[in-house]
Specification:
This protein is mainly α. It has four helices and two strands; from the N terminus they run βααααβ. It has helices at residues 9-29, 35-54, 67-87, 94-113, and strands at residues 7-8, 114-115.
Length: 124
């Protein structure tokens, strides 16, 4: 589950903070029409920020979520992002649908490509 990709865990964390902020401000930046898209975007952004801050990683603040739990949450979150426009009824609106699907795919690829374990313990 914890493959050793080329992206350091620190970079993964920084990208998650940026993505969380993007989701919180996206309804105004991208002019979302749907109230559902606005609400889901803000909630997802806050969830991403909380997960990033609570993970036991170099960028974590409270470090209460173990790395393995973070990886599982990343995969669940990526799937949820891709499905959200269809589940919450805003798939007919281009801007939020493109944002959610694109960032869901990017989040999935980021998770697959992240080096979650330090190099010294990678062989363990």
């Amino acid at each position: 589950m914890l493959r050793q990709g080329p992206i350091p865990l620190f970079v993964h964390g920084v990208i998650e903070y940026a993505a969380g902020i993007l989701f919180v401000v996206a309804p105004w930046l991208l002019d979302f029409d749907s109230g559902s898209a606005r609400a889901v975007s803000i909630v997802i952004g806050i969830v991403i920020l909380v997960i990033a801050a609570a993970t036991d990683a170099p960028t974590g603040l409270s470090r209460t979520i173990p790395i393995k739990g973070h990886v599982v949450l990343d995969f669940v979150l990526a799937i949820a992002l891709i499905a959200a426009p269809f589940l919450f009824g805003f798939s007919d609106e281009t801007n939020p649908t493109a944002l959610f699907v694109t960032l869901g795919i990017v989040h999935l690829l980021l998770t697959i490509a992240t080096r979650f374990l330090p190099r010294a313990s990678a062989s363990a």
